[in-house]
Write a structure and sequence with these properties.
Helices cover 34% and strands 22% of the residues. By secondary structure, the chain is an alpha/beta fold. The strands form three sheets. A six-stranded mixed sheet has the order 2-1-11-10-12-13. A five-stranded parallel sheet has the order 4-3-5-6-7. The chain has a two-stranded antiparallel ribbon with strand order 8-9. Strand 1 and strand 2 form a beta hairpin. Helix 2 crosses helix 3 and helix 7 packs across helix 8.
């Protein structure tokens, strides 16, 4: 599959095409080097999680097209699921790096209510932030537990994602959002679905990605480059992605071999310390 295969106009359409073309091959692999966790999701399994989350957002939280979803979530396969669930339902995703949320400015369009999704590890801090939590219509806590366990302690007024999402259907009937509708707010910039697809195809072409590639990523989803490397460029090109959290550099060489990595992003390259994607020799 080339970077220009098909004519998908939205990220949700990119996923539908990937599921139709190659449902069983891994799409997202996740490592947490602090816990030793490894999770691998095929395109079909990833799509099922996206559908469940989309149904949860629409039926469980009454989200409507155009609603913003502020996500204080680390690099994680569930963060990728939430991004795609937003784009499948016409919601506007606004990822925030959990390590950088303290003292941040108000969310884009802060006068409008939004849904707030928060990782368990920073949930108490976020709830204590009057700016970030004060404007939220709904607060959802994500345990990010390796076995899908619920929050260790669910505060009043917080919906436990893991406890709720499994009850929802694994097919989402919604049409998604129009290509020109807002889809992502990052670094004070709003991107439409069509803009994200165009950027993803451009990145896939620049990095020469194709279906043979395995892209290892150690980047936050709170930037456009993080969204492109961690999800959209692999989707647009047919490649698969390995998302790392709490990255242990001592594990790099073994992981490159074990996972048959061909492209690395977010770690210093042999000729470039910026973390820009580079292809292994």
């Amino acid at each position: 599959m080339s970077a220009h295969a098909g004519a998908a106009g939205t990220p949700a359409e990119l996923l539908r095409r990937r599921v139709a073309a190659d449902p069983s091959r891994p799409l997202v692999t996740f490592y947490d080097d602090a816990s030793g966790e490894r999770v691998e999701l095929s395109a079909r399994t990833f799509d099922n999680w996206v559908a469940k989350t989309a149904n949860f957002l629409v039926d469980g939280l009454a989200a409507e097209p155009g609603t913003r979803v502020v996500m204080v979530l680390p690099p994680h396969w569930q963060t990728a699921v939430w991004l795609m669930a937003c784009w499948s339902t016409g919601l506007v995703a606004e990822p925030v790096d959990p390590e950088a949320f303290a003292g941040r400015a108000e969310p884009a369009g802060a006068s409008d209510p939004y849904i707030l999704a928060v990782a368990q590890e920073v949930l108490d801090d976020v709830l204590a932030d009057d700016v970030l939590a004060g404007g939220a219509e709904e607060v959802v806590g994500l345990s990010l537990h390796a076995l899908g366990g619920p929050l260790a302690d669910c505060p009043p007024g917080v919906t436990d994602y893991a406890a709720e999402v499994r009850t929802y259907g694994d097919r989402f009937p919604g049409p998604g959002s129009p290509p020109e509708a807002p889809a992502l707010n990052v670094t004070k910039t709003t991107f439409s679905g069509a803009g994200l697809v165009s950027a993803a195809r451009g990145a896939a072409e620049k990095w020469e990605l194709d279906a043979r590639d395995r892209l290892l990523v150690d980047m936050s989803f709170a930037t456009l480059d993080g969204v492109l490397t961690g999800l959209l460029a692999p989707l647009a090109s047919g490649a698969s992605v390995i998302i790392q959290r709490n990255f242990d550099k001592a594990a790099l060489d073994r992981r490159l071999t074990l996972e048959h990595v061909t492209v690395v992003a977010g770690t210093s390259g042999p000729n470039d310390a910026s973390g820009s994607p580079y292809r292994l020799a």
